[in-house]
Amino acid sequence: MDYKYIEQLMERYWNAETTLEEEEILRAFFSQEDIPAELSQYAPLFAYEHAEKAVDVLGEDFDEKMLQMVGEAPRSEERPQAQIISLRERLMPLFKSAAVVAIVLTLGNAAQVAFQKSPEETPGMAEVQSTITDGKSVALTDSVANVERTVHSD
Prior knowledge:
Blueprint lengths: L3 H11 L5 H11 L12 H12 L7 H9 L16 H28 L10 H10 L5 H14 L1
């Protein structure tokens, strides 16, 4: 038997030029039992669709079955209600972040004072130390440099 037409269709199929009707012709041809040996290698490609139709597909109750297997109750068809979040609850993470930043800056300032050399070892530090004990607020890093410059320039 001459299978020129099928071979032409196969050539067009590999070039992606076949129509849906021509692909249906190929499926029908390869679903037969009498297929020539040179074309039998392509049979699983076209028989795949017929074999897949026989396989069970997911049913409408698939979700419920899976939830029962997991141990959860099936969901109702109602949509969940939107939760109302107040402005305070929305800004709470921002407040917490600001508190953490304030704590870190405070600890950094305390560590800066604690790890500095004693006033006797650092020139100009005695004036700064006296202002600290008097209760006056002074930024230590900037004022020490300024005090040293004014002391040395006079």
